Amino acid sequence: HHYIEINELEYIYPDGTKAVEDVSLYISHGESVAILGSNGAGKSTLIKHLNGTILPVKGSVNIGGTPITKKTLKTIRATVGLVFQNTDNQLFMPSVFENVAFSPRNIGITGDELQKVVEESLDKVDALGLIDKHPFKLSGGEKRKVCIASVIASNPEILVLDEPTAEIDPKGIGDLVSILRQFSHTKIISSHNLKFSRSVCSRGVVMQEGRIVFDGDLDEIFSND
Ligand code: ADP
Ligand code: ADP
Prior knowledge:
GO cellular component, one term: ATP-binding cassette (ABC) transporter complex
Enzyme class: hydrolase
Shape: globular
Radius of gyration: 17 Å
Bound molecules: adenosine-5'-diphosphate
Keywords: ATP-binding, Cell membrane, Hydrolase, Membrane, Nucleotide-binding, Translocase, Transport
Low-confidence stretches: none
Order of helices and strands: EEEHEEHEHHHHEHEHEEH
Strand order of the largest sheet: 6-7-8-3-9-10
Largest sheet: 6 strands, mixed
Number of strands: 10
Strand content: 25-35%
InterPro entries: AAA+_ATPase, ABC_transporter-like_ATP-bd, ABC_transporter-like_CS, ABC_transpr_CbiO/EcfA_su, ECF_ABC_transporter_ATP-bd, P-loop_NTPase
Structural class: alpha/beta
GO molecular function: ATP binding; ATP hydrolysis activity; ATPase-coupled transmembrane transporter activity
Mean pLDDT: 95
């Protein structure tokens, strides 16, 4: 058994768009996997299945032996931290501190311990200096860092990031690479940026029209260019 198992997944949106078709994918503990493909390939839809943002309708997703269902959602969400593509939807509290504090507060952490968790999480993404800022005053790269800090604050085993380089300048992307490389978490990262993906992940999964058309060493994709 693999740590993460996606079996024959299919997903059709209510308007009839088939976004994911016959996707099976097995990921080991500690692996870093890039999900690549052009716009509309199905990356976001697949990624949203990994923490039950979309519940599997056809096929299944198992995390550490637990199938993702409505019943297991609470356990799954504690294990899988998802950083969405759109940072503004995740930065819903009026300060960086409050945003990062949101999940740990939810599981009962308060006072000095909460302060410590928030500071450590921000420090891990090199953003401690932003703690008192209003999220909407941040740059794209800073917003992304705060979103990542907010997700790691609840200490998930698996980190899933949907298009993390969106709205970040080249220097910010370099910073993001260093930050992500320091995390020992199992990582699944969707991106259409090959260079970024290769800097963080060794394995690449390429999607096209909802299907996996390549799964292997990212360097091989480069040599085929
Ligand atoms: P990617 O992340 O690779 O850009 P998506 O998973 O967002 O791909 O989209 C896959 C397909 O599903 C595309 O054809 C897209 O237009 C469609 N799609 C995405 N979200 C929805 C939705 N909410 N309703 C209908 N179709 C959608
Ligand atoms: P994200 O990856 O954060 O969902 P997207 O830009 O892919 O960001 O999509 C933004 C929103 O629009 C999502 O809720 C997505 O499901 C929806 N969406 C994307 N493509 C379509 C589509 N073709 N029809 C309807 N809704 C869509």
